[in-house]
Amino acid sequence: MLCVKPYNWACKIFIIPFWEMWELPDIFVQTLWEGLVGGTLYSLIALGFVLVFKASGVFNFAQGIMVVFAALSLVGLHAIGVPAFLALALAAVIMLVLAISVERIVLRPLVNQPDIILFMATFGLTYFLIGFGELIFGGDPKLMITKQLYIPTGTYSIDFAGGRVELQKLDITAMVVASTMVAVLAVFFSKTRIGRALRAVADSHKAALSVGISLNQIWVIVWFAAGLVALVTGIMWGARSEVSFALEIIALKALPVLILGGFTSIPGAIVGGLIIGIGEKVGEIYWGPLFGRGIESWLAYMIALIFLLFRPQGLFGEKIIERV
Amino acid sequence: MRMKGLLVGAVLAATAVTPAFVSNASAQDSIYVPLFSYRTGPFANSGIPIANGMADYLNMLNERDGGINGVKLNVEECETGYNTEKGVACYESTKAKNPVVTNPYSTGITLQLIPRASVDKIPVLSMAYGLSASAVGQSFPWVFNPPATYWDGLSMIMKYIAEKEGGFEKLKGKTIGYIFFDGGYGREPLPLLEIFAKKYGFETKLYPVPPAEMQNQSGQWLNVRKDKPDWMIMWGWGAMNPTAVKEAARIKFPMDKFVGIWWSGGDDDARPAGDDAKGYLTLNFNGVGAQYPAVQDIIKHVVAKGKSQTQADKVGENLYNRGIYNSVLIAEGIRNAQKITGKKVITGEDMRRGLESLTITQARWKELGLEGFGAPITAVNCTDHNGHHAAYMQQWNGKNWVKITDWISPMKEEVRPLLEAAASDYVTKNAGWPKRTESCDRPS
């Protein structure tokens, strides 16, 4: 028999996890829900990376610290007496100023430099924002102004298959906001004139310039969009825990999403985020005990790498054919 | 060019904030005390209040008393970001200034500095953290970790749980979950937990939290919900703590059965969860609040004069007072070294002797203006560099920590043999580990 105590490896891998899903369907549904929420937020973070990469061919290492900086700006402004929604608007303005500054100070002087130079410039930007952020806001953690922004808290508890499924109102809000933002950005960058210009810039800077597309304007727009994504991400993750410099690490969760979805694909970021989010949660809950648990951080990369074996260009990445 | 100049200026301004210089006494007539701290990075929420408490107490001694026995303390912070490499760099940069003691404030950094302490003749004070086995003075004459080791902490938590369950024999068949920072710190108590599980017949469930997942623990807590443990024990730090408390509340785990070690009991660890955190328990070995005369002196001589980095309303919070406790050990170690050697300006070697015969009686705590702040330190000696002192259980009431038990003694009879075996193992694995040659002073 495959499953007789003491259980062998085949039983632990192929039978017990599925038996547990069947036995405790509420936990299974809860796992899928948690994965879906996490995945949507990963999609949002990955989208920030994809937008910048499409426009400038740069992997923006500073996306993580932008999440922290945006969230700190919001709570910092509110702490000095600015009403919550005005603080939200001003935080968006700060991200616009940051986008303009990055374009003027970092990107413009480096036009036509190798991609690695631009990548290293985003490293510099990261450390600048860390130091600048700590100088202005201090290193101590802050509470997200959840109530002031009318973000609902509390739980919907649903009886399900003899158990219960808990849906956090905060998570539902995060799902709705993140999905809306992803959809709006996806439509904006695929259906509008600016979106077409972005795609032209992504294909070739020189060709785009030759038909009159302003590279500088496109860069400001995508960095601003990445800043808005960072702000929303900071609010949602900050509300789940606290606003601190530790949030920077969360952005790195987008890396396997990008490997999976492709660095240039908006649908890839969305689908990749969901696959990673759900995959890592299901893996952690049902197969994690086999590996001593705590496998989420590397399982996401494993999932991405397995996909890459079959689609090296990522789920929706463009297949590059070079004739020699 | 102007833009570039502005950028360079801003970068310099931003980086200048990192190392904080606290005091300016000259080297010849002062005692140099470097404080490794982390006011930046993912662990800043735990690091900032401790750094403030440590610096403020020593600065208060300078301001109020002119230092210790007339010798000013030259207190200097070095920012580690809780990063081992940066911590070692701090050690190297402060070594030349003849420090009397090193406070690594990280288990990872402590492990790196232990082999260097005897070579450089600078004692390491890793207060209730670091390598538990370094409590064995015969093997680690230059390392001190009072008032209690992590293994003592676990044994005290087990005593509390057993008492609530009606005795150790009632633990049989129970399930105890252990959620921990997946690093040297969180893994330290695992051997003892396994021994307890075998001895008392309970099952353990482990929930490691990788450093990158500190703020993303929904998977771990979903597993907790699936496993339904009777009790949860936590060894968390930094951003892991408030996230865990929030997640525990989310899955409706009974908070009065969720017990943290003393490093999981900051005010900012429980506060973000609001009322949902009510009932959460942690061990503690220092008093909480600003009512102590010594803390009032800090407010008067340091905070009110703008010589502190802390906000006035944070004085007296748990981790701030933890920093004070750490500095009391430093100050009393210096005072004792001065007494033993008859010197005013002591060296690291003198300080080692001062720490090795350190005693803080109940009466001495009172003299310090800290009556009832800590259990008497009476058991540190040449063979025992820890003392295995008592701690108490505190509970979050939604706004503050409240002491809910008397002092709980650790199960020294269980812990000490394990420590000695671990120390012996460490010495065996590190070929050429020096044999103790240092003399032994009687406790002060």
Please provide a brief summary of the model.
The complex is a heterodimer of chains A (324) and B (444). Chain A is mainly alpha-helical.
Protein architecture, described:
The complex is a heterodimer of chains A (324) and B (444). By secondary structure, chain A is mainly alpha-helical. In chain A, strands 1-2 form a two-stranded antiparallel ribbon. Chain A has helices spanning 9-14, 16-23, 25-56, 63-79, 84-107, 115-137, 169-191, 193-203, 205-210, 215-240, 247-251, 254-261, 266-287, 296-310; strands spanning 155-160, 163-168. Chain A has 14 helices and 2 strands, in the order ααααααββαααααααα. By secondary structure, chain B is an alpha/beta fold. Chain B contains 15 helices and 11 strands. In chain B, the strands form 3 sheets. Chain B has a 7-stranded mixed β-sheet, with helices on both faces. In chain B, strands 1-2 form a two-stranded parallel sheet. A two-stranded parallel sheet of chain B has the order 3-4. In chain B, α2 packs across α11 (293-303), α3 (84-95) runs parallel beside α4 (107-120) and α12 (318-341) packs across α13 (348-356). Chain B is globular and about 60 Å long. Mean pLDDT of chain B is 92; it is low at 1-27. The interface between A and B is large, with 47 and 49 residues.
Write the SSE topology.
The complex is a heterodimer of chains A (about 325) and B (about 450).
Chain A: H1 9-14, H2 16-23, H3 25-56, H4 63-79, H5 84-107, H6 115-137, E1 155-160, E2 163-168, H7 169-191, H8 193-203, H9 205-210, H10 215-240, H11 247-251, H12 254-261, H13 266-287, H14 296-310
Antiparallel strand pairs in A: 1-2
Chain B: H1 2-16, E1 30-37, H2 44-65, E2 72-79, H3 84-95, H4 107-120, E3 124-125, E4 143-144, H5 150-165, E5 175-181, H6 184-187, H7 190-200, E6 203-209, H8 218-227, E7 231-235, H9 240-250, E8 258-260, H10 267-270, E9 281-284, H11 293-303, H12 318-341, H13 348-356, H14 362-367, E10 392-396, E11 401-403, H15 412-429
